């Protein structure tokens, strides 16, 4: 028994001595990587954002710019430009320049997906200009570095239901499963501060256009459920303001501005005509009016009902216009193709057939809106 115990202790000591020691102050933690396509054929520019631990208490951020023809080559080149040992296990963000996103992102994403050290829950985004320019921005509030700031920026807006989930896992799911096309946030720079204004629309792995964040609201209505959404809109004043009221200056009122909050929704998409490829989308919405620009008779149930109908018609129109815009790009982030495949069979998505018929499909959106209560008059 004693011999066995001695053997066990020796084995533990031997295994412990084999573990590579890593001192924090010797490690450069890569929190973000940006990829840009250079004018020289085949060459890439990489921008690596490093977080370094300082034993004196200061958090040091370093940005390294590299050139190579592969993602691994960019990392190797970055290693030659720092005394720190690079670690990619905490990579939180991959940012593609617009040009490389238009050419196709899978060339680089496939390499990242095969790296066991990189988590598939990191965010992916597109730069409005170049990734290098955005990652060189110096206004990132109280975040330790620009990579962490952009990660927090996207994560916060995902939780607030303003932008769609855009992790590596989500992108690969849409790409390989053919259930729908990916959507990514576009990061632009305003006064040296990264912001989100638009969303990149993809066809497979190529960016083919963009939509506004407001249009992204209607996209989420079609694809997902809102639990606490927000929407600002303008509606015509005619049904709610008396033209004969001299004190209201009716002719000066161009529209009634509404701010809707605490929006909950659910949508159902069904194929109503297989041969003519016609869809019907039924959306149920509940919302609270947080703010309204004109005093209308919200205590009157008929007025509230009419208001809900007009809000519903507005959302129907905006949603159908968004679908038409996506058809022009030949991108299907909603997943109409999957609904059609379930009705027709696997051949619906075979040999790029859906890409040929998607631009000609017809969609009718019906929105039922329930106003829960009125809010503040501004």
UniProtKB/TrEMBL annotation:
It is found in: Membrane. GO terms for biological process: spore germination. Gene3D superfamilies: Nutrient germinant receptor protein C, domain 3. Its main location: membrane. The keyword Lipoprotein applies. Residues 199-375 form the Spore germination GerAC-like C-terminal domain. Belongs to the GerABKC lipoprotein family. It comes from Pontibacillus yanchengensis. NCBIfam families: spore_ger_x_C (TIGR02887). It is a lipid-anchor. Residues 21-188 form the Spore germination protein N-terminal domain. The keyword Lipid metabolism does not apply. This is Ger(X)C family spore germination protein. PANTHER family: SPORE GERMINATION PROTEIN B3.
């Amino acid at each position: 028994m004693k011999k066995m115990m001695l053997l066990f202790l020796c084995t533990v000591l031997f295994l412990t001595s084999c573990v590579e020691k890593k001192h924090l102050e010797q490690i450069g933690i890569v929190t973000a990587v940006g990829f840009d396509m250079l004018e020289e054929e085949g060459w890439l520019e990489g921008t690596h954002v490093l977080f370094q631990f300082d034993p004196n208490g200061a958090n040091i951020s370093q940005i390294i710019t590299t050139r190579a023809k592969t993602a691994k080559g960019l990392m190797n080149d970055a290693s030659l430009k720092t005394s720190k040992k690079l670690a990619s296990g905490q990579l939180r963000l991959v940012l593609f320049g617009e040009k490389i996103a238009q050419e196709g992102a899978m060339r680089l994403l496939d390499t990242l997906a095969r790296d066991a050290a990189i988590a598939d829950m990191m965010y992916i985004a597109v730069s409005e200009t170049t990734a290098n320019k955005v990652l060189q921005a110096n206004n990132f509030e109280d975040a330790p570095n620009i990579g962490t700031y952009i990660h927090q920026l996207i994560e916060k807006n995902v939780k607030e239901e303003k932008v769609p989930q855009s992790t590596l896992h989500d992108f690969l799911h849409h790409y390989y499963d053919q259930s729908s096309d990916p959507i990514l946030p576009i990061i632009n720079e305003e006064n040296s501060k990264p912001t989100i204004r638009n969303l990149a629309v993809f066809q497979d792995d190529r960016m083919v256009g963009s939509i506004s964040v407001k249009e992204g609201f209607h996209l989420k209505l079609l694809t997902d459920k809102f639990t606490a959404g927000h929407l600002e809109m303008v509606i015509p004043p005619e049904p709610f303001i008396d033209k004969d009221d001299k004190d209201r200056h009716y002719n000066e009122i161009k529209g009634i501005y509404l701010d809707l909050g605490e929006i909950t929704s659910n949508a159902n998409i069904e194929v109503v005509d297989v041969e003519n490829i016609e869809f019907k989308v039924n959306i149920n919405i509940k919302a609270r009016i947080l703010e309204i620009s004109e005093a209308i008779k919200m205590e009157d149930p008929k007025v509230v009902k009419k208001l809900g109908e007009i809000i519903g018609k507005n959302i129907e129109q905006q949603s159908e216009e968004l679908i038409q815009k996506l058809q022009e790009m030949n991108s299907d982030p909603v997943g109409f193709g999957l609904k059609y495949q379930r009705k027709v069979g696997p051949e619906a998505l075979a040999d790029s057939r859906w890409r040929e018929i998607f631009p000609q499909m017809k969609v009718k959106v019906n929105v039922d809106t329930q106003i829960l209560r009125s809010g503040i008059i501004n």
